[in-house]
Write a structure and sequence with these properties.
Layout lengths: L9 E3 H13 L7 H9 L1 E3 L14 E7 L4 E7 L10 E3 L3 H6 L7 E5 L5 E11 L10
Parallel strand pairs: 1-2, 4-5
Antiparallel strand pairs: 3-4, 3-7, 6-7
Length: 137
């Protein structure tokens, strides 16, 4: 029996290519090591085959803090569109990297800049571009 790890996540081929290109254009950009691990180890699917319960780029998700239970609505985006106070989190942030490729019901875990650990359960995907037929965003 193979053990399940937090790295067993799924990315669309388009998200994988775009994030890889983003990192190559800005190699000195601060990013969580977890994002590099995700890019190296994720299962890839064609964008048209993305499951509607999968967190992809520009997905809007409802998360619930563990263990507090407080709920937040977040949209996963690229750094240029990030507005954390408005709920738009960059894929290069610890929380953004932790959410990408997760599915509804999963618990995303990340380390905050101060070294503290944080986690949130993905309760619902409120919007996913691929689920609406948008395969280019």
């Amino acid at each position: 029996m193979q053990a399940t790890t937090t790295l067993e996540r799924t990315l669309t081929e388009l998200d994988h290519v775009r994030i890889t290109n983003l990192i190559h254009r800005s190699p000195d950009a601060a990013r969580p090591k977890a994002l590099d691990d995700l890019l190296d180890n994720a299962d890839l699917v064609p964008v048209r085959e993305a499951s509607p319960d999968l967190v992809t780029m520009y997905s809007q998700v409802l998360i619930e803090d563990v263990p507090g239970g407080e709920r937040h609505k977040l949209t996963l985006c690229y750094p240029a569109d990030a507005e954390p106070a408005e709920g738009f989190v960059s894929v290069l942030s610890p929380v953004g990297a932790a959410l990408l490729g997760q599915r509804v019901g999963a618990t995303a875990r990340w380390t905050l800049p101060n070294g503290a650990e944080s986690a949130a359960k993905i309760v619902e995907i409120l919007f996913q571009p691929e689920a609406t037929g948008d395969f280019t965003t």
